[in-house]
Amino acid sequence: MGTEADREAGAVFTARRLGVVPETGRVVVTNGTQSAFNMLLGGLVGQGNVLAVESLTYPPILVLAERLGFVPRGVTMDGEGILPDALEALCRRERPKALYLLSTLQNPTTATMSLDRRKAVVEVARRYDLQIIEDDIYSLLPAQTQPPLAALAPERTWYILGVAKSIAAGMKIAYLVAPSPADAERQFWPGVRATFWMAAPISAAVSTRLIVRGGALRIIEAVREEMRLRHEIVRPMLGGLDFVTADGALHVWVRLQQGSSAHRLAALIRERGVNIGTAEPYALPREQAPEAIRIGIGHAQSHQELETAMITIACSHADQLKAY
Ligand SMILES: Cc1ncc(COP(=O)(O)O)c(C=O)c1O
Predict the structure, then answer these.
(1) Which CATH class is domain 216-323?
(2) Measuring CA to CA, how many Å separate 125 from each of 52, 146, 159?
(3) 109, 165, 176: which to mutate for ligand 1, most atoms within 8 A of CB?
(4) Each residue of 45-79: pLDDT tens digit?
(5) Contact 166, 175 (CB under 8 A)
(6) CA of 235 to the centre of ligand 1 (A)
(7) How far is the C-alpha of 30 from the C-alpha of 188, rounded, in Å?
(8) Does the beta carbon of 164 sit less than 6 angstroms from any atom of ligand 1?
(9) Element (H, E) at 274
(10) Is the CB of 168 under 6 A from ligand 1?
(11) How confident is the model at residue 194 (pLDDT cuts 50, 70, 90)?
């Protein structure tokens, strides 16, 4: 589950969000968030059981549902993420074992929960004895944030803070804080000799150094500043579009007009050399994906490249509207 030093660094890192330094025994150093999912979802949810997810969810969860045989069920969202009433209705109907969500900068909608919404979701989870898997990967980027659900309900939350979005995706390190040391051991220890989930020690060591020596904070500050500049470039270029994004977000979510096809628009934009996403991979099986596109603004190598790509997107959108 990581060396003592690596777990201590993870405790310090996650404390930035949790508000308190968690006991080292609760911390597991994983080979990235996705690796943590592999270990957690099999054990916490299990074959044939239900996992509650946001109605548009991070696609690897859906891939893992097929592989591990659990059933993902969507919870309706508004501008603040999942609706507590909808979660409660699902709990009554299908008794999910756990809930997977992003409470800050949801992927793909960029929705962030208010404190009241967080409290209401936790209350439902407590009432129905639901485990919470909180993926807080984008939470170090906005200037202002709310505490994670893990700070409100540590007894049932499996908190995951990956470094991919705030420090470097290539490190493939995520820190997980389990409800208790015994829970961490139960979910993670048995597989350690038979799988490759264990974090590569060299990556873990680099991450520890960055955290302990302060480099991590400097990188996070730099990423924040870069995103602030990119938002300044991108937002004025989206005039007239129905878009949502938020301070620190690495992407923009654009809802298309009724009758438009996100699939066709994305194909046109890609033909013109810019890679772009649609809602489809985020939609649950047999659910209709909304007509929307997802513009990642972190990938471009320069402001110039970002600006050129945004022009391509805006022109393609205008061309598609004309064609209707
Ligand atoms: C919601 C979410 N979770 C996790 C990850 C990354 O996971 P990892 O820590 O395995 O790189 C991403 C990256 O795209 C993401 O969007």
Answers:
(1) alpha beta
(2) 11, 18, 15
(3) 165
(4) 999 999 999 999 999 999 999 999 999 999 999 99
(5) no
(6) 24
(7) 10
(8) yes
(9) none
(10) no
(11) low
Domain boundaries, the chain: 4-213, 216-323
The span from the CA of 177 to the CA of 134, in Å, is: 10
Q: Which of 58, 101, 171, 282 to mutate to test the pocket of ligand 1 (most atoms within 8 A of CB)?
A: 58
Does residue 249 contact residue 110 with C-beta atoms inside 8 Å? yes
Q: Report residue 2's pLDDT band, with 50, 70 and 90 as the boundaries.
A: confident
Relative to the CA of 36, which ligand 1 atom is closest? Answer: 10
- Per-residue pLDDT of 214-243, as tens digits, reads 999 999 999 999 999 999 999 999 988 999
Q: Residue 174 Cα, ligand 1 centroid: separation in angstroms?
A: 9
The pLDDT of residue 89 is above 90? yes
What is the DSSP secondary structure assignment for residue 56, as one 8-state letter? B
Helix (H, G, I), strand (E, B) or coil at 280: helix
Residue 244 tokens, joined: 């949502």
Helix axes 84-94, 115-127, angle to 10 degrees: 10
**The pLDDT value given to residue 240:** 83
Residue range 4-213 forms a domain whose CATH class is alpha beta
User: pTM value?
Assistant: 0.96
Task: Determine the atom of ligand 1 nearest the C-alpha atom of 135.
Answer: 3
